[in-house]
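Quick log. Single chain, no ligands specified.
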Amino acid sequence: MEVGIVGLPNVGKSTLFNALTDAGALAANYPFATIEPNVGVVAVPDPRLAEISGYISTQKIIPASIRVVDIAGIVKGASEGEGLGNKFLSHIREVDAILHVVRCFENSGDVEITHFDGTVDPIRDIETIELELILADLQTVEQATEKAKKAARGGDKEAKARLALLEKLAPVLAEGKPARGVIAGLTDPDEQKAAKSLGMISAKRVLYVANVDESDLLGQGPLASKVRERAAAEGMEVVPVCAKIESELAGLDDAERDEMLEAYGLHEPALATLARGAYTLLGLQSFYTAGEKEVRAWTVSQGATAPQAAGVIHSDFERGFIRAEIYSVADLAELKNEKAIREAGRLRVEGKAYVMQDGDVCHFLFNV
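-> predicted structure:
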């Protein structure tokens, strides 16, 4: 899974990225400090891995991971070349979801961070970013339409579907509305295929990250509440994070980190909260493989079948899928080992139609 962090300059985007990836020195507090995107791979916190390895002796534990791309600060007019212009667009098109960092704190104390627009208004900031993404998509649609018309005149079925989709998208984007409504309503398989190839940025799912201060860690203040209302109206998710605290936590050892979390009344760093938010947003879940060599978490979409889950590990596993032997982490906690699970009749043998459940521990049998 890959997510892209976007936001206006000076909203705490790079601070959050460094905290999540423990990347060391923070980026300078200047607009456009990030010209090319920083990329980090972060482990998804998962207590079930430790639980499984407590019963199954293994050489290593491998958590699921999220690839995080820190994209340059977007400003008004970016779709027309302002700031870094279109340089960020290709990076956003590649990600599975967008983490939109929104400033939800006023200046306080002796630290002053200048907002790009001079005042703090999270809804205005959200609308600024969204409009730039919509305008960038509109450019893509306009540029693709003439080419699609020529191809469609030749009778090509896929070209006709692509043109039909472009003609649906153009008026919606021209009204300043995102592409997600159009694309979510598609029922024609050829148009759905065309939508994937277009890579509409404004169709991507968004996890709003409300960057709050120490006085509003739960994000219940007036600024963060506005973001919550906006996210609810769009069917998106929102996670409150204090990037300043997360940057301080990133440099601590485990004991110091736990002590600091306790002092703030927090149970875990923001990474765990963000990971769960991203999983919920994208409809993802985890399953596990466990043995002497490794205990490992894998990510799969909710509703995925056993062969599709096997394919996450290796394409040959899906192609040659025979069956899966599955038990739950709860079974392991109760019965202590796989031998006891098997003897108790709790080891389920599932075929190609089985729909994976969150927390399944699997052995896949295949033949290629």
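The longest strand covers residues 294-301.
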